[in-house]
């Protein structure tokens, strides 16, 4: 059988993770990644990249646990190796705090992060507006380093990369045998899926090298994430808002909320500001369909709609997408024998 040609659309953390998984696991395939924006210009590049997740309503909990665990183990392995600084992956310890005791005190991912426990009364004294909290060690993955590192790994596995905008999946049908769609918000057009919606997020990068622990309000609105070169503070969650410009009102609100949690931030310098649009969906779409494209039945594997947790879940969902590509390959081989 001739070499099967796979194309992955999307150069964010989901696209590159998926492309690496396919290229490394399936050497009989030639794998090309197409994207109209690459690092440092993707949404993934600006993400704070702290690993923990929300629960999606309609994805079986077992699947969500597996996505989280596979991603955590993959990034932990990198964080504890000599490639960690180049890949931008580090361990990060800190607190998630709540104004009221949440209905679910122990989230499903608590078994996979390191040293998860409830905060003591002594620790909570620092946060007088908050009654309850989690302390744990997780991972921070900085995509401005991680994406170029993944691209190198992909090329080493024989992958090809091309910067190009895809107007429709139709145009790929004559050059490829399997399409993998990781186009995030672009899936509104490419997969005609209006269920993917932008959720605008604004963050500031600050110089505060004395801060070593993350602090996250459990409502997901306010967070302080120390990283390798700076501290990311945020944020906003504005649904259906397409604005990519910095909003001065949001800047003031972020600084005010974060300084209330960590007063030393009032003395810190703002290095830069950034806005990104989370590709949100009720549930991420990780599934396969057969599309009739230019009179030919083609397998299309979708992997998009990760919302505010794409860095966290990218590797786990990429492995599921790999399984769907493998399934398509088996079917093609069976048909070739008939
Ligand atoms: C402020 C903020 C903070 C965040 N913090 C975290 C965090 O702490 N932890 C976490 O896990 N997640 C976080 N996220 C979420 C995370 O950024 C996203 O879930 C993730 O980046 C989605 O990755 P993606 O690859 O699907 O999309 P993207 O990074 O947007 O990549 C999509 C790719 O598809 C390409 N594309 C789209 N349409 C086409 C087309 N027609 N033709 C060719 N190419 C196309 C784009 O050019 C791009 O290369 C945050 C997001 C924001 C905005």
Automatic annotation (TrEMBL):
<feature type="domain" description="FAD dependent oxidoreductase">
    <location>
        <begin position="5"/>
        <end position="318"/>
    </location>
</feature>
<feature type="binding site">
    <location>
        <begin position="48"/>
        <end position="50"/>
    </location>
    <ligand>
        <name>FAD</name>
    </ligand>
</feature>
<feature type="binding site">
    <location>
        <position position="166"/>
    </location>
    <ligand>
        <name>FAD</name>
    </ligand>
</feature>
<protein>
    <recommendedName>
        <fullName>D-aspartate oxidase</fullName>
        <ecNumber>1.4.3.1</ecNumber>
    </recommendedName>
</protein>
<feature type="binding site">
    <location>
        <position position="278"/>
    </location>
    <ligand>
        <name>D-dopa</name>
    </ligand>
</feature>
<comment type="similarity">
    <text>Belongs to the DAMOX/DASOX family.</text>
</comment>
<dbReference type="GO" id="GO:0019478">
    <property type="term" value="P:D-amino acid catabolic process"/>
</dbReference>
<dbReference type="InterPro" id="IPR023209">
    <property type="entry name" value="DAO"/>
</dbReference>
<feature type="binding site">
    <location>
        <position position="308"/>
    </location>
    <ligand>
        <name>D-dopa</name>
    </ligand>
</feature>
<keyword id="KW-0274">FAD</keyword>
<feature type="binding site">
    <location>
        <begin position="307"/>
        <end position="312"/>
    </location>
    <ligand>
        <name>FAD</name>
    </ligand>
</feature>
<dbReference type="GO" id="GO:0008445">
    <property type="term" value="F:D-aspartate oxidase activity"/>
</dbReference>
<comment type="function">
    <text>Selectively catalyzes the oxidative deamination of acidic amino acids. Suppresses the level of D-aspartate in the brain, an amino acid that can act as an agonist for glutamate receptors. Protects the organism from the toxicity of D-amino acids. May also function in the intestine.</text>
</comment>
<feature type="binding site">
    <location>
        <position position="223"/>
    </location>
    <ligand>
        <name>D-dopa</name>
    </ligand>
</feature>
<feature type="binding site">
    <location>
        <begin position="43"/>
        <end position="44"/>
    </location>
    <ligand>
        <name>FAD</name>
    </ligand>
</feature>
<dbReference type="Pfam" id="PF01266">
    <property type="entry name" value="DAO"/>
</dbReference>
<dbReference type="InterPro" id="IPR006181">
    <property type="entry name" value="D-amino_acid_oxidase_CS"/>
</dbReference>
<keyword id="KW-0576">Peroxisome</keyword>
<keyword id="KW-0560">Oxidoreductase</keyword>
<keyword id="KW-0285">Flavoprotein</keyword>
<dbReference type="GO" id="GO:0006533">
    <property type="term" value="P:L-aspartate catabolic process"/>
</dbReference>
<dbReference type="GO" id="GO:0071949">
    <property type="term" value="F:FAD binding"/>
</dbReference>
<feature type="binding site">
    <location>
        <begin position="36"/>
        <end position="37"/>
    </location>
    <ligand>
        <name>FAD</name>
    </ligand>
</feature>
<dbReference type="GO" id="GO:0005782">
    <property type="term" value="C:peroxisomal matrix"/>
</dbReference>
<dbReference type="InterPro" id="IPR006076">
    <property type="entry name" value="FAD-dep_OxRdtase"/>
</dbReference>
């Amino acid at each position: 059988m001739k070499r099967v040609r796979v194309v992955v659309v999307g150069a964010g953390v989901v696209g590159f993770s998926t492309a690496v998984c396919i290229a490394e696991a399936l050497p009989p395939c030639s794998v090309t990644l197409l994207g109209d924006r690459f690092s440092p210009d993707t949404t993934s590049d600006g993400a704070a990249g702290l690993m923990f997740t929300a629960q999606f309503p309609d994805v079986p909990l077992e699947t969500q646990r597996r996505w989280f665990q596979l991603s955590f183990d993959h990034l932990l392995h990198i964080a504890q190796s000599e490639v960690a600084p180049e890949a931008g992956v580090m361990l990060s310890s800190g607190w998630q705090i709540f104004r009221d005791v949440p209905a679910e005190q122990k989230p499903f991912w608590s078994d996979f992060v390191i040293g998860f426990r409830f905060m003591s009364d002594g620790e909570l004294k620092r946060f007088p507006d908050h009654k309850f909290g989690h302390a744990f060690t997780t991972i921070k993955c900085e995509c401005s380093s991680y994406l170029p590192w993944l691209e190198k790994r992909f090329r080493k596995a024989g992958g090809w990369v091309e910067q190009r905008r895809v107007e429709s999946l139709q145009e790929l049908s004559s050059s490829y045998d399997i399409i993998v769609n990781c186009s995030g918000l672009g899936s509104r057009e490419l997969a005609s899926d209006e269920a993917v919606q932008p959720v605008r997020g604004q963050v500031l990068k600050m110089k505060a090298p004395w801060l070593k622990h993350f602090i996250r309000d459990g409502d997901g609105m306010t967070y302080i994430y120390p990283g390798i070169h700076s501290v990311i503070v945020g944020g906003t969650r504005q649904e259906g808002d397409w604005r990519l410009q910095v909003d001065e009102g949001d800047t003031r609100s972020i600084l005010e909320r974060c300084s209330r949690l960590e007063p030393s931030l009032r003395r810190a310098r703002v290095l830069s500001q950034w806005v990104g649009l989370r590709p949100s969906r009720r549930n991420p779409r990780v599934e396969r369909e057969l599309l009739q494209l230019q009179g030919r039945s083609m397998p299309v594997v979708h992997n998009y709609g990760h919302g505010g947790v794409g860095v966290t879940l990218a590797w786990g969902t990429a492995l599921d997408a790999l399984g769907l590509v493998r399934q398509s390959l088996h079917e093609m081989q069976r048909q070739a024998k008939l």
